[in-house]
Amino acid sequence: MHVSGALETHIVRNDFRCGFCGEILEEAISFRNLSDKMVIEIVPVKIVNSGQKIILSNERLQAINVILRDEQVNSIELGQGCTVVGTCRVDRNAEDVVISLEANNIMKFKPSFLVSLSTSSRIIQKLHDVCSRSPWLWPFFLAHIFGARIVPGGYMIKLRLLLLISLVLDPEVNYLHILSIGKESSLYFSLVQFAQKFAQRFFPVSVASPLSGKVMKDKYTWAPYFLQGGSLFMSCGGVCSLGNVSEWKKAKKEQLQTVLSTSKIFVDLSSKHTGGLYQQLSFPLKCHVWGLNEPSVKDKLSTHSTDVLNGQYSTGDLSKSFMDAFSYICFLDCGDLGTEEETARDVAQHIISSHVVDNDSDLFDIPFEEIDYFISLARQTDSKLTPAAEEVVQSYYKTSRMTRSSGLTGSHVPPSAMQTLISLAVGLAKLRLSTSVSHDDTVLAIYLYEEYLSSRFGQSCLGCPPRHNVPWSRLEELLGEQNHWLMQTFAEQLMRFCSTMMSSQIIHKEE
After folding, report:
1. Cα–Cα distance between 41 and 261 in angstroms, integer?
2. Bridge-partner residues for 280, per DSSP?
3. Can you give the pTM of this predicted structure?
4. Which of residues 392 and 369 earns the better pLDDT score?
5. How many C-beta neighbours within 10 Å does residue 53 have?
6. How many CB atoms lie under 10 A from the CB of residue 414?
7. Residue 34 pLDDT more than 70?
8. Per-residue pLDDT at 101
9. Based on the number of CB atoms within 10 Å of its own CB, is 24 exposed (0-12), middle (13-18) or buried (19 or more)?
10. Which residues neighbour 385 within 8 Å (Cβ) at sequence distance 6 or greater?
11. For the chain, which has fewer Cβ within 10 Å, the N-terminal or C-terminal residue?
């Protein structure tokens, strides 16, 4: 097997023996064919796993060198999970142990789960049966359960629902990038730390790891350069946590904006690595992105000085193009002082009671394994968008862009709204364990997105008051009959709104 720095005579190991007679096998030098080769470093899945606690064992958690040849060179991707079959070689240099593999075969893999609802938690089944009376209650019940030990009742209820939807979606098919804006950074990171345990893969952005990729001199001296994958590559198939983007520099924000807008990761190759002109490599983005923007002191002071009639929330110094790059922006702060004071009391009481009193509520008795089992079941459900549901989404997309048009500057609704609406509808269908997206799923997806638009740009013709945080005293608005009647009224209003706007557009064109 070839290792770094080996001579030509050392390319093939000399300790292969015949399986029948036991004699040492000798290489036929005349048949030797040196072709394309590549060296890669693979890391065990546990290093970039879902964030669950590492089980201490005798397994090695270091990078392993793998040598590829011929067509195997084209079968490898940065960040992609794979199983390598090959010949192993162990070299010892004092206390250092270097493990290398000569790959004979490489197989790509994705985690697969064979689970059924009949074996899931009895509490989840009971809640699912209770929520069957209304098609719009089940997602809010799930969000209420999710992270119930971290935040109370309806606090950050929309963020919890969005995180659930993002966890069950396949980022290669339907991505959902979430940017949260608010001053409760500690509770946000606690909630994200809890949610990351259910992701198929989770890798945060840190100072040590670049956002995209890092190009350096090839340490194996085989090629002009060595490419190290960054956080977005290592999060392939899962979630990449950005942390607090308000602490980022402008150049890094622009880099992230380009990645999210194009759904591609770009890696620059300078002339010193290519030996010629500047080049750029592009790779598809295959992960969800979660981030937080914490307002500055100036923004915090002006949070309540916004126009109450308009209902717009402060977005700080973030540019419109940067926010448009994300699929959904979730505002963590309340819209009025009364609700904020009430939710602050709920949070304080929840923190005190969680440390002092043993809560016997069923919501706290659902084991981690049961929630993980249900999310895995929802993730493997293949939900398809029906023509009727797609027609509703398209009608709303067209009418919302027309109604929120600002003349010369175009529409406030970002072009990515269509993809976001489809992702939300598919995610809601997955949470229902349904193989098809229903009309009710699209209605709730549109309602969630209209809330986001109302929070950012002001109230709309549909009149969706943002409810990012719901106090205990008003929790019935989400988990009771009031929510059913609200959504039913919104569905009827949505159909009238879309039909009226489309018909008026046709009349205008005829005139």
Report:
1. 30
2. 268
3. 0.83
4. 392
5. 7
6. 19
7. no
8. 84
9. exposed
10. 393, 422, 425, 426, 437
11. C
Collapsed DSSP state (helix, strand, coil) of residue 151: coil
Start-to-end C-alpha separation, the chain: 78
Of 163, 226, 170, 223, which is closest to residue 197 (Cα–Cα)?
A: 163
Structure tokens at 193: 């730390």
CB contact at 8 A, 204 and 231: yes
Token pair of 357, please? 């009193």
Q: Which of 267, 287, 288 is nearest to 278 (CA)?
A: 267
Quick one: angle between helices 387-403 and 439-457, nearest 10?
A: 20
Distance CA 123, CA 120 (A): 9
User: Up-side HSE of residue 335: CA atoms within 13 Å toward CB?
Assistant: 20
CB atoms within 10 A of CB 420: 23
Which band of pLDDT confidence, cut at 50, 70 and 90, is reported for residue 259? very high
266, burial (CB in 10 Å: exposed 0-12, middle 13-18, buried 19+): middle
The two structure tokens encoding residue 366: 């659902």
CA–CA gap between residue 59 and residue 57 (Å, rounded): 5
Q: How confident is the model at residue 84 (pLDDT cuts 50, 70, 90)?
A: confident
Percentage above 90 pLDDT, the chain: 19
Indicate the residue type of 124. Answer: I
| pLDDT grade for 506, boundaries at 50, 70 and 90 | very low
How many Å separate Cα 385 from the centre of its chain? 20
Helix (H) or strand (E) holding 344: helix 337-356
Give the CA diameter of the chain. 93
List C-alpha distances in Å: 407 to 3, 279, 416, 453, 460: 64, 39, 19, 18, 17
Strands (E) located in 94-209? 96-108, 178-181, 202-204
Cα dihedral 435, 133, 162, 402, rounded to 10, equals: 90
Angular region, 153: left φ>0, alpha ψ -120 to 50, beta rest: left
The two structure tokens encoding residue 491: 């569905």
